[in-house]
Amino acid sequence: MKTYILGDSYALFGRHMHHLVRMPQRLLSVTLMPIMFVILFGYLFGSSMTLPSGEYHDYIMAGIFIQVMLASVINTGVGVAEDLNNGLVDRFRSMPMSQVSVLLGRTSSDVVLNCISCAVMSGVGLMIGWRIDTNPIKALEGFLLLILLGFTMTWLGSLVGLLIREPQGVNAVAMFITMPASFLSATFYPLANLPGWLQSIAQWNPMTTLATALRELWGNPTGNVGDVPLPLRHPVLSSVLILGVLLVILIPLTTRAYERAAAKV
Fold first, then answer.
1. SS3 for 220-257, per residue?
2. pTM for the predicted model, two decimal places
3. Which of 139, 97, 34 is nearest to 258 (CA)?
4. 155 touches 70 (CB < 8 A)
5. Do residues 206 and 127 make contact, with C-beta atoms less than 8 angstroms apart?
6. CB atoms within 10 A of CB 105
7. How far is CA 93 from CA 100, 208, 262, in A?
8. From the CA atom positions of the chain, what is the Rg in Å?
9. N or C, fewer C-beta in 10 Å, the chain?
10. What are the CA-CA distances from residue 22 to residues 12, 14, 105 (Å)?
11. Cβ(131)–Cβ(58) below 8 Å
12. In which domain, by residue range, is 142 found?
């Protein structure tokens, strides 16, 4: 059974990769947007940001990486909704294949796009002065954590796409989810720069924990001062636990949503 699922998933992964080769314009959203974010936040906003210690261009990169991984909710969700509306899911339903393979093929191919985004952002970040000040193992751990975040967000996007089923509606709902998650956190500015009540919300935002974990693994300034909540004291372990729990919840929910959506097509 496992071989059956993996074989189907690999075949669908290959299908999505072939489409990417035939429609390279899809790469624009995962390359131009990261460059825009790095330049916009690194140069324009950086001049007005202050940190307890360290440089802002080192601080901001973790936040930009997270912002682009959150965009997977939109990209995957819209793609799933389009598959539902163009008859592709109807064709899959008539074939002897595992339901979860359809989702694994989609999410794993979108992870490849996430990896391309990471490579582009890393290059642009190095150009503006960002550096990783730890050893290669910790640096790799940071990127693996980032890819895990992107993979988790693809499953969330799949669930949104299956529930909303209209690309424009998916885009709106995904923005409603990702914008507060990224901006009500310490992704782009230190917690100390926020008002008291927003600071309390941002401290417990999982994106703050993830950003702190990446900064610690890469040796970048965290911007945290004083007493912080427990997740921020052990950000790497907390981040892995948060993403693991989300995947345990999202994968079965998304699989059931796909079965219901396919039955309605």
1. CCCCCCCCCCHHHHCHHHHHHHHHHHHHHHHHHHHHHH
2. 0.88
3. 97
4. no
5. no
6. 22
7. 12, 40, 7
8. 19
9. N
10. 15, 12, 17
11. yes
12. 2-264
Burial of 1 per CB tally in 10 Å (0-12, 13-18, 19+) = exposed
Q: What is the pLDDT along the chain (265 residues), one digit of tens a residue?
A: 444 556 656 556 666 566 666 666 666 766 777 788 777 777 676 666 777 777 888 888 999 899 889 988 988 888 888 877 776 666 666 665 666 777 887 888 888 888 888 888 898 888 888 899 999 999 999 999 999 999 999 999 999 998 998 888 999 999 999 988 988 898 888 888 788 888 889 999 999 999 999 999 999 988 887 788 888 999 999 999 999 999 999 999 998 998 887 776 5
Number of domains in the chain: 1
Structure-token match 């261009």, residue found: 57
Kindly state the tokens that stand for 105: 């093929």
Q: Distance between CA 107 and CA 160 in Å, rounded?
A: 13
The type of residue at 230 is L
Token output for 110: 């979108």
Q: Which residue has the tokens 């424009």?
A: 168
* Beta-carbon contacts of residue 128 (< 8 Å; ≥ 6 apart): 38, 39, 42, 43, 57
